[in-house]
Amino acid sequence: MITLIFADALQPFLPPARRGGAWCLPAPPDASLKHVIEACGVPHTEVGAILLNGQPAGFAERVADGDHIEVRAWSAADLHAAHTLRHWPAPEAMRFVADAHLGALARRLRMAGFDTLFRNDFADREIAALAADEGRIVLTRDRGLLQHKAISHACYVHATAPDAQFSALVERLGLRPGLRPFTRCIECNAPLKAVDKGTVLDRLPPSVREHQLRFTRCTGCGRVFWEGSHWRRMGLMLDGA
Ligand SMILES: [Zn+2]
């Protein structure tokens, strides 16, 4: 038999009957730690560290009869610790790819300045390829996607409301030092550039032309942004996070 103990933060991934205590099961023949952990329902991307019989271990290590396996989650507090299973970029260098159901979260991340790819028709294999090729952190509520072997950095999104999703992500990845509000287009993800009012006058509604002073233009799609009510509302959301 082998014994598995999962951290509190990983309990929601376990079958309900297995939550709360140690899980003893027959030692599978020639299985890796990664295989055993994922067979219990926990995506490897949610695991921050593994202690095999009290010693830090990697995903590839083999499981043997009598093993005691403690599985820990990762959080902002230990993201850059020595015993973690993966190296994370600094917050200001974190880039994301959001799955097809997380458009509202993607827009919030862009509003906060984070490079975030999103399309509502992304296929799993495209997301996995973007994660592997461009070093992007995958955001999803799909456990199956997180078991993809090409994905090493990901964050399972537990919350369903977009503002709560954003706050949880800021907390868990320690994103605060990387916040660069209003520097990226929420529609297309390209950087914004400050422009003189005179150069965009013909594109402004009359009330904006009269009252607003600061403008930015998207270097990708050309949209013009100003500090209107939408801007203030998003500012409040960022303050909240
Ligand atoms: Zn744009």
Quickly list its features:
241 residues, alpha/beta, Ubiquitin-like (UB roll), Rossmann fold, 3 domains, five-stranded mixed β-sheet, 8 helices, 12 strands, elongated, binds zinc ion
What does the model show?
With 241 residues, this protein is of the alpha/beta class. It has three domains: 2-78, Ubiquitin-like (UB roll), CATH 3.10.20.30; 91-178, Rossmann fold, CATH 3.40.50; 192-229, no CATH class. 27% of the residues lie in helices and 20% in strands. The protein contains eight helices and twelve strands. The protein has helices spanning 33-39, 103-111, 124-134, 143-146, 162-172, 197-200, 206-211, 229-240; strands spanning 2-6, 23-25, 47-52, 55-57, 68-73, 96-98, 116-118, 137-140, 154-156, 192-195, 215-218, 224-226. The strands form three sheets. A five-stranded mixed β-sheet has the order 2-1-5-3-4, with no helix packed on it. Strands 7-6-8-9 form a four-stranded parallel β-sheet, with helices on both faces. Helix 4 (143-146) links the parallel strand 8 and strand 9 (154-156). Helix 2 packs across helix 5 (162-172). The mean pLDDT is 92. The structure holds zinc ion (ZN). The site of zinc ion (ZN) has 8 residues, from loops. Zinc ion (ZN) binds next to loops.
